[in-house]
Amino acid sequence: MDNIISSAGDSSQLITREGWEKLKKELDCLKNVRRHEIAERIERAKELGDLSENAEYAEAKDEQAFNEGRILEIEATLKKITVVEGNGHGENIDLGSKVTVECNGKQKEFIIVSFNEVDPEQNKISNESPLGQALIGKKAGGEVTVPAPSGRMKYKILKVE
């Protein structure tokens, strides 16, 4: 495994530096930009009169509640994650590794990331997914078999970056 730069204890989740920075950036935006935008919307809505029948006010308050909930969610997540420094440039597959595999004659490329960094459009799969779990710790040249709805899938590991 790469260097672990912060630890939140045994029950923590792993995350890449990129994923941690993305969460911090979102938190900063929610606290320092969205909060102010929503507060301004609430003030403008108050000026429209009776709050009991003011749809704009109710919508802004709902948005405020959602924003504050997301802030709490990110803060809680940041407290229980362990940041893994490095980007998987080792011989063994780990968090941050870019892996090229072959399955049924087709080559596929994946990046192994934490649960909250998953992005299928960018081929980022979770280290907690069946394929991610099977690949962790393996090397190029190895093979893994993963259960799938259509049966067991066999993957040959071609390259690890």
- Strand percentage, roughly? 25-35%
Helical proportion, percent range: 25-40%
The major sheet is characterized as: 5 strands, mixed
Low-confidence stretches: 1-10
Structural class assignment? alpha/beta
Give the strand order of the largest sheet, numbering strands 1, 2, ... along the chain: 6-5-4-8-7
- Give the CATH H-level superfamily of the largest domain: Transcription elongation factor, GreA/GreB, N-terminal domain
Total helix count?
3
The CATH architecture term of the largest domain is: Orthogonal Bundle
Count the E strands: 8
Assigned CATH class of the largest domain: Mainly Alpha
Q: What general form does the structure show? A: elongated
Distance separating the two termini: 14 Å
- Estimate nothing, just give the exact number of structural domains: 2
- Average pLDDT taken over every residue: 89
**Which series of helices and strands comes N to C?**
EEHHEEEEHEE
Radius of gyration: 21 Å
Q: Tell me the CATH topology of the largest domain.
A: Helix Hairpins
Protein name: Transcription elongation factor GreA
Family: Belongs to the GreA/GreB family.
Keywords: DNA-binding, Elongation factor, Protein biosynthesis, Transcription, Transcription regulation
GO molecular function, one term: DNA binding
